[in-house]
């Protein structure tokens, strides 16, 4: 298990991380794989243990007035010297459901207690007070604010700051298919960020390697550097920055057989950018793959006599990503997937164009154009999104019609469970105080990352 705070107390009732993969028939293989992964992490002495971020420093020109409790920031918080004990009042989504009450945060940045009276889910937004949801967790982030993770340097920090404004409290920096020298250059600075965190930035939990071990037939917007899995390359990259998630195409020769070795080495394998069949998908799940990368996009579609990779996911997956920007997947297909995949969770697949005006940007080595809310290659292929997680929440609730509690879990809790992080993605005693405070129109009012308040003024 790759908990980012080994040895710390998990939140009460939060240890229900469920394994992915086929629901029936493959459980023992999956559990064995998960056991190997945990074993590996223990043997490795949890080398990627991270250090808690400091609270946002208000002297850096990013401060904002107002707190969810309506009072001025306390002295320590203004100075940014250390987190402070704080109480937030409002309608709070707990693992047991909504309550009207108080969430107390300790000086260690963790939730001390959540108290209140239960509220019926159907009246979730029937309140004048703030809504407090678990901070969003986005496992597929290429960029924002004009910056791309593949740039290296301080790109990941700037990307994490922009997404924090929109309620994202933790994310995976996501690479493109690329030559090794480009991957090395992009991972090295993320390793440092994952170890120490930064004020006002979403916690970078590690990397999602989207390729290069994918299908050259299903590149989507990925450049033509696809190749078979190399465990040596992965170990070299993992030493630079923790690889939490790895997208591969199982039908590429050698990849299916490599999955058990990848899992045994501690890598969480996800199926994506694949021209594989339904059978390839089922076999990959049986061998230890656990999720699907942006379900429906860049994979073989479902036909009733040839169910393809989408069919494998709908029939067997416990977890999968989906991009709810309403451009990548039709709302009806999102609803269908939610009925089939219990822990379907949302990602943005966001690019440098996120939070920026229409114009020309880069996605890895490729030029892309942002226009009418979409990001595309010159040939019109969708190339990631400009989605932010707060907009994803509004899309799920206001357009697709999900209940607020269900939508919130698909933006946070399920992703935390998928990464086996019991102390994130839920507002419960012992968990990190990663909180997004929203008004009844689901606009972000305040974001707390490990108890520290974050400026959201630019997001409004
Ligand atoms: Zn992507």
TrEMBL record:
Q: Which UniProt keywords apply?
A: Carbohydrate metabolism, Hydrolase, Metal-binding
The kind of enzyme this is, by top-level EC class, is hydrolase
Q: Where is this region: Disordered?
A: 1-92
What InterPro entries does the annotation carry?
Amidohydro-rel, GlcNAc_6-P_deAcase, Metal-dep_hydrolase_composite, Metal_Hydrolase
Q: SUPFAM superfamilies recorded for this chain?
A: Composite domain of metallo-dependent hydrolases, Metallo-dependent hydrolases
Q: Where is the signal peptide?
A: none
Q: What is its EC number?
A: 3.5.1.25
Q: Name one GO biological process term.
A: N-acetylglucosamine catabolic process
Query: For bias kind Basic and acidic residues, which ranges apply?
Result: 66-81
* UniProt feature, compositional bias: Basic residues: 54-65
Gene Ontology MF annotations = metal ion binding; N-acetylglucosamine-6-phosphate deacetylase activity
**Amidohydrolase-related domain: from which residue to which, for each copy?**
132-451
Bias (Low complexity) ranges: 10-21, 44-53
Q: Which PANTHER family match?
A: N-ACETYLGLUCOSAMINE-6-PHOSPHATE DEACETYLASE
Per the record, the similarity remark reads:
Belongs to the metallo-dependent hydrolases superfamily. NagA family.
Listed NCBIfam families: nagA
Q: What is this protein called?
A: N-acetylglucosamine-6-phosphate deacetylase
What organism does this protein naturally occur in?
Answer: Ramlibacter montanisoli
